[in-house]
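To assess whether ligand presence alters the predicted conformation, the chain was also submitted together with zinc ion. Input:
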Amino acid sequence: MRVLIVSDIHANLAALEAVLRDATAAGPIEAVWNLGDCVGYGPQPGECIARLRELGALMVAGNHERAATGAISTADFNPNAAAAAAWTRDQLSGEEKSYLDALPEVAEQRVGQDPSLKAGASAAEFTLVHGTLREPIWEYLNSHEAAIGHLRLQETALGLVGHTHVPMLVVEDESSAQGCELYRLADGEAVDLTPERKIVINPGSVGQPRDRDPRASYAVYDTEQAAVTLHRVEYDIGATQALMEAAGLPRWLIERLEVGR
Ligand code: ZN
């Protein structure tokens, strides 16, 4: 069984479609898990929500879902993000907002017992959250301190987070001074799931990568290989930029897509 793991799509339908094509070209995808921020910044929020619902995606909420429905204030957003959130709010129907408002901030997902799993059932239990378990929609898991705070609350061996827009692996390591190690994940890199240590994986961002690689980022969990592999795929950045231009979205949000930051 292969599970597609996506995050931070940010209303970039061209990027999402490229990810779906790329992931399914390698074999069937049986489930989609989305780690939040499917809207905000980009030009096609309603289309992205519809696509994810059609796929039956398991979804958790990010700060941009909450901002898009008005559930939280955008006072703490930077001016570009606040402007995009206000635009997004105007695009969404009442029904779409109700759908987003109903999304949980944390989800646990168990993937059925697989005889090939390397070490028991716990290896297939995941906790999904946008930011961290300490602050589910706000905190960036991008430091040892945040990682340890999160890991203390993570009851499953495996965690999946988004929010930073940077693909990353965190491995709990009680023998190290900082209690864990943080690694960047590159295209094609596979993480073997070993339940002896807790780990957290960030699949990067589909619709607005920020690691200076503009390609859409995603991950695939393969239960037979008991591994999660990171992938990057090119998409039609110009098409998304043209839609953003037409919508009058902030210039910096349009430009950053081509530099991946
Ligand atoms: Zn985001």
